[in-house]
Design a protein that fits this description.
The chain is built from 16 helices and six strands. With about 475 residues, the chain is mostly helical. The radius of gyration is 25 Å and the shape is globular. It starts with a strand and ends with a strand.
């Protein structure tokens, strides 16, 4: 008795796209800021704010557009990255609007500039542009590996962006802004993404040579002398940025990003040790003769000793008082006094409003949201199938994490103040645009990593198999 059976190649099992999960999370990411907006309005005026409906519809529309773009062009991407970024962006808009209602800040703006210009409206416009840039990244960047072709071009572009602010006047003691036709741009925000692309392409090629060790000292494998060139060059460049632009934040971000990626690529702890020693040595050296950096170090060491005579000390002192008055649960949205900090309350020091009005619990919730973005980025790096994608995902996640640490550490008194902005939350167009682009690249890498492999083509010899049974 013979039985003839036809066998065909079984295709890959369709992996869940998780887009419906993302949509449900986006609904919460829009509802929570709208509820916070309502709370601020009730606290300030005792009534529902008139702009709540428009704010909710605007944020919901932006989130819906971003979701449709992800559903169309990155179907298998991580479902948490977009809702987390939307939630932070939405809460940032609420905090900025809350500070716009402060009579103190209105009077200060009128005394300084003659007119008060609300920041929340501009921030909503920048958020819309950020979503547009996010969509453009996903639509135009079909495969993240294309970026590897531009390794050295990205290095040249990043250096240009970092050097450009040197030729423009300093603002608040630091040269980090470029003013063109009335628009102010912070090139360092975009440079962190381009630098991560360069480091990923460079380390993917050079990681084997950089991982070689010449000798062991005190439990550490020391790198060869000729391989110290890259880290010495990056260290020197970060010191030059600190000297000529007096920008401590960008220097820490730039050098820290390279050291982290170098460690990930080579798995050598010695690079971390060398990086920390060089960063501390460089910062101490510059702080001894650069007045702006020295003032921030003095404010960090004891802000209340120069509270009445130095603006930097007064800002740090007010920030610490805000965190202290917030306690565990905070004073309530719209009921704090963080606006006493002045013009930087909605930018560099916006986390102090969170600390005072939402307390320790609210501050930890914000930091947890940032930590989740970093965790999803690291998970994307682990899931990536190509070394360039792994390094790029870990680089972007590290840049995001370092920036959060530098800003939060500065306003809390853990490290000297750097002048950088809290991603998605602080007022500033450059920061919002750059971070939405960063999320877009992470989503593209995540989509490539999670996308199921195509089914193998059927073999002509296996189309029919004759099985003979007795």
């Amino acid at each position: 008795m013979s039985v003839v059976t036809n066998t065909t190649t079984i295709g890959a099992i369709e992996a869940p796209s998780r887009r419906n999960t993302e949509l449900a999370l986006l609904a919460f990411a829009v509802a929570i800021p709208v509820f916070a907006y309502l709370n601020v309005g009730l606290a300030l005026d005792g009534k529902v704010p008139t702009g709540m409906l428009g704010y909710g519809l605007g944020l919901g529309l932006l989130a819906g557009v971003a979701h449709l773009v992800v559903r169309k062009f990155a179907r298998y991407a991580d479902p948490l990255l977009l809702p987390l970024a939307t939630l932070l962006n939405g809460l940032g808009l609420v905090l900025i609007w809350r500070l716009d209602q402060s009579p103190r800040l209105i009077r200060l703006a009128e005394l300084s500039f003659g007119v008060f210009s609300p920041s929340a409206t501009k921030q909503l416009m920048y958020s819309a542009l950020g979503i547009a840039l996010f969509a453009a990244v996903l639509m135009l960047l079909k495969d993240h590996r294309i970026l590897q072709r531009y390794t050295y071009i990205s290095m040249a572009v990043a250096l240009f962006l970092l050097i450009l602010p040197m030729f423009f006047p300093a603002r608040n003691g630091a040269k980090i802004w470029v003013s063109i036709a009335g628009f102010n741009v912070q090139p360092g925000e975009f440079a962190k993404i381009i630098i991560a692309i360069f480091f990923s392409g460079y380390l993917m090629v050079k990681r084997d040579a950089l991982a070689l060790a010449s000798r062991r000292f005190m439990g550490l494998y020391l790198p060869r002398g000729r391989d110290l060139g890259p880290i010495l060059g990056i260290w020197a460049l970060s010191i030059l940025i600190l000297v000529f632009e007096t920008d401590l934040g960008t220097s820490l971000l730039f050098f820290g990003l390279f050291v982290v990626m170098l460690y990930v690529a080579t798995e050598r702890t010695s690079w971390i040790v060398f990086g920390l020693l060089m960063s501390v040595g460089g910062a101490v050296g510059v702080a001894t003769f650069e007045p702006h950096v020295q003032a921030r170090v003095n404010a960090w060491q004891d802000p209340f000793s120069c509270y009445a005579t130095d603006g930097a000390c007064q800002q740090i002192g007010d920030a610490l008082l805000s965190f202290g008055s917030g306690g565990t649960l905070g004073t309530g949205l719209g009921q704090g006094n963080s606006d006493l900090i002045g013009f930087a309350a909605n930018a560099d020091f916006i986390l102090t409003t969170v600390g005072e009005e939402l307390g320790l619990a609210g501050t930890m919730a914000f930091l947890l949201l940032y930590g989740l973005i970093v965790e999803r980025g690291v998970r994307t790096a682990l899931a990536a199938r190509d070394p360039f994608g792994k390094l790029l995902a870990i680089g972007l996640s590290s840049a995001f994490a370092i920036q959060v640490f530098v800003v939060a550490g500065g306003v809390m008194g853990l490290i000297p103040l750097t002048g950088m902005t809290m991603p998605f939350v602080a007022a500033g167009g450059s920061s919002v645009l750059a971070n939405w682009a960063l999320i877009g690249i992470l989503i593209r890498i995540s989509d490539t990593a999670r996308r199921p492999a195509p089914a193998p083509a059927p073999s002509p010899d296996a189309e029919m198999t004759q099985v003979v049974r007795p």
